[in-house]
Amino acid sequence: MTEPLDAGGRLRRLLAILAYLAGVGEATIAELSERFSMDERALVAELELAACCGLPPYTPDQLLELVLDDERVVAYGLEALRRPARLSPDEGFAVAAAARALMAVPGADPDGPLGSALAKLEAALGEDRLRVELDTAEQTEHLEVLRRAAADHELVEIDYLGGKRGDETTRVVEPHAVAAREGRFYLDAYCHLADGWRRFQVERVRAVRPLGTPFSPRTPPEELGGLRAFAGGPGTRLARVALPERLQALVERVAAGPAERLADGRAVVPVEVADEHWFGLLLLRLGPDVEVLSPPGLAKAGESAARRALVRYRTEVGASG
């Protein structure tokens, strides 16, 4: 089952569809549905919504011209999407830095399309090649060992640093897959210590020791098959968080569904919570204008995190004094 995209993902997909239409002028609904892996009804709904977009004052001459019938869509006025984007030097540097980071990932093809585009961009910027180091040599080594163990179905023992200070455990796991999600590498594995499936951040793996013991592959749960890095497990709770609209982008990555609008202008975002400590830190980052509407047991998570941080600060200041 394909996981629904968040607002950012839907926007990127819609822009890709419009860019394609800008090049071809018109296409059948069936062709677009197959090309962008979308249900035809969902595709038509997205295009009808896009046809209502434009510039103030949103008069007919300022809207996107998308003409749809039962079988085809014809696009007018998308000339801007046919022209290459013109970037300022600062924008070009940011794009080059992001591309160089992707090229630093083990297994990236320096002679592929991204490598070629990066070389042209860096030449246009007139600067020396950017140097980006994604991970330490130790983490890169962990990635290779974990990938090999997953391919060979071999048990490994890992030392893993949890979300709390001092929360380090040694676990025997059955590696299933190592993948990059939302800018980080994760290991999906069956953990013998937890007696269940877990998703581990590779950057928190402090040591990997292959045990030389084969295991029979298990079928991972459905929640590990999505594109989001966060995958809730047993005990996961769904919190409803009300926050000013200006803060909504800060929780989009962890949102478990679309936001709702309250009469007072705030957005209500559903957030899956598997770790109350993590949720408390999230609330601290969002600030005092955030309210947990449900469940009641998580309403004070931010206050608890603040008290723990204060105690730790006083302890460390006292020790250094």
Summarize the structure.
The chain is α+β, with helices and mostly antiparallel strands and 321 residues long. The chain has 4 domains: 7-82, Winged helix-like DNA-binding domain superfamily/Winged helix DNA-binding domain (Arc Repressor Mutant, subunit A); 89-125; 137-225, SH3 type barrels; 237-311, Alpha-Beta Plaits, CATH 3.30.70.
Question: Would you write up a description of this structure?
Answer:
It is a single chain. With 321 residues, the protein is of the alpha+beta class. The protein is built from nine helices and twelve strands. Strands 7-6-5-4-8 form a five-stranded antiparallel β-sheet. The model has no long low-confidence stretch (mean pLDDT 78).
Give the topology, please:
Blueprint: H1 7-24, E1 26-28, H2 29-35, H3 40-50, E2 65-68, E3 72-76, H4 79-82, H5 89-103, H6 113-125, H7 137-152, E4 154-161, E5 168-181, E6 184-191, E7 196-201, E8 205-214, E9 237-243, E10 260-261, E11 267-273, H8 276-286, E12 291-294, H9 301-320
